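Please fill in the sequence for the structure shown.

STRUCTURE ENCODING:
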């Protein structure tokens, strides 16, 4: 079976302004069609006001708990988005005395009453907002509603992400991929472009951002400042290393990099790998590598494409790689206790620490999707593989590592000075860059964890939705589960 490609989906963005304006126009058209107001056809209180029945114009109808409707209103929270009172809301027994759609069904007014007339209150709700929640919190009242209802007995399966739909529909790529490319200074001014970039970090999982700034110097404390400041504005703070003083690391190609270990010695061949293989849980979800000095040529590999190839053509090997646990481990001796590199502080005691991570090379989620690739031959430890499967497993592992080096699975790209290559470290592998002769190269690297990435995308999507419809603002869009919010922002 031929490898699937996405060459028509991704292209190098040379005129980022024009391309982005076109993308925004298409995106806006799609979103208007997907999020046009779902008006309320009728509504009335039932069961002595303990529930409210709402029928929407698409003929779906649901029964809501009155207590839920009252508890969900943003008026119960302050400007800090915390609830105004620590008192449990359900100590008050609110009933719906009357409900009435208004403004042509785009809003619902609810008159609540309590045992005390002083507590009676009237609230207004947006029909789109209620419709987004209906399949999750409402009881379906007809067949049309049963088809859309969330039937899980225990509710939502977990936190989820606004990126889940992209994740479930990722497409494998190979050498045909045209690297998505953005202009950093334009991105700083354009939140829609930031959303596009973050979504491309899920699929295809890599991009180049050019023109993010020039460092004031190339030392270990200043070389990465442009990258750190840029990413702080686009996504969030870089992960803090357990020993290094800075949130970024710096590699000087011609400054005794071999003293820092095999990963930093550019004379040493480096096979396709992911980073943080030795850290339990692989905290570096997004990986950033910034060319502070020098322009190079490099390559990346789609772990999803190779995994899919293994699944189709070598299913037994694929099964072993997704079920048998391999160990990556390292004793880190690179840094001194003052946070400097030991080679730069030979008289300072070393901040030596151990790392170990045992896991399948390919981790699948509960639905069988490839969730994470963890691969690094230089950091592969001594694995406790059972005797009976050792030979068979190592055969599968060799096939996997050989496929990673095949040209059909590699995308090559130019990596100019003052640009950063960004990769989804749970999907995309990278190798050693090709440095032209007599080139002084300074490369800076850093990582951001998955939750920071996902929640930054969530915030930007909320803001985008607010720009489309200022009525459903931050007070209505915050505090919502991702599965519900998806219906309001896509």
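FILLED IN BY: designer on duty
SEQUENCE:
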């Amino acid at each position: 079976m031929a490898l699937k490609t996405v060459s028509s989906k991704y292209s190098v963005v040379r005129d980022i302004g024009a391309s982005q304006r076109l993308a925004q126009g298409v995106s806006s058209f799609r979103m208007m069609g997907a999020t046009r107001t779902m008006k309320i056809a009728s509504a009335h209180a039932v069961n002595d006001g303990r529930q409210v029945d709402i029928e929407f114009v698409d003929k779906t109808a649901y029964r809501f708990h009155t207590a839920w409707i009252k508890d969900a209103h943003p008026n119960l929270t302050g400007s800090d988005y915390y609830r105004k009172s620590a008192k449990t809301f359900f100590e008050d027994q609110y009933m719906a005395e009357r409900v009435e759609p208004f403004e042509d069904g785009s809003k619902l007014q609810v008159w609540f009453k309590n045992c005390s007339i002083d507590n009676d209150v009237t609230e207004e709700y947006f029909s789109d907002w209620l419709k987004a929640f209906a399949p999750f919190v409402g009881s379906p009242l007809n067949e049309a509603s049963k088809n859309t209802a969330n039937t899980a007995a225990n509710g939502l399966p977990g936190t989820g992400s606004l990126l889940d739909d992209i994740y479930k529909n990722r497409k494998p790529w190979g050498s045909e991929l045209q690297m998505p490319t953005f202009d950093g200074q334009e991105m700083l001014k354009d939140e829609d472009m930031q959303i596009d970039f973050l979504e491309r970090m899920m699929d295809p999982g890599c991009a180049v951002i050019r023109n993010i700034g020039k460092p004031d110097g190339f030392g270990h404390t200043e070389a990465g400042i442009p990258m750190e400041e840029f990413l702080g504005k686009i996504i969030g703070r870089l992960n803090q290393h357990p020993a290094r003083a800075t949130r970024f690391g710096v590699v000087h190609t011609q400054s005794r990099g071999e003293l820092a270990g095999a990963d930093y010695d550019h004379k040493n061949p480096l096979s396709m790998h992911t980073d943080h293989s030795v850290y339990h849980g692989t905290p570096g979800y997004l990986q950033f590598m910034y060319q502070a000095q020098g322009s190079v040529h490099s390559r990346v590999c789609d772990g999803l494409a190779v995994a899919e190839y293994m699944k189709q053509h070598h299913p037994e090997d694929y099964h072993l790689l997704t079920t048998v646990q391999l160990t990556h481990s390292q004793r880190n001796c690179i840094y001194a206790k003052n946070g400097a590199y030991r080679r730069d502080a030979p008289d300072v005691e070393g901040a030596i620490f151990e790392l170990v991570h045992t896991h399948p090379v390919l981790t699948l989620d509960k639905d069988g999707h490839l969730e994470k690739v963890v691969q690094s031959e230089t950091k592969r430890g001594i694995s406790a593989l059972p005797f009976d499967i050792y030979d068979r497993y190592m055969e599968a592992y060799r096939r996997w590592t050989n496929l990673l080096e095949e040209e059909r699975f590699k995308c090559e790209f130019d990596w100019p000075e003052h640009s950063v290559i960004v990769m989804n470290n749970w999907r995309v592998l990278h190798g050693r860059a090709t440095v032209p002769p007599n080139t002084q190269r300074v490369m800076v690297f850093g990582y951001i964890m998955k939750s920071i990435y996902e929640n930054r995308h969530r915030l930007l999507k909320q803001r985008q939705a607010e720009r489309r419809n200022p009525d459903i603002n931050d007070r209505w869009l915050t505090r919502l589960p991702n599965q519900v919010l998806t219906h309001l922002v896509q």
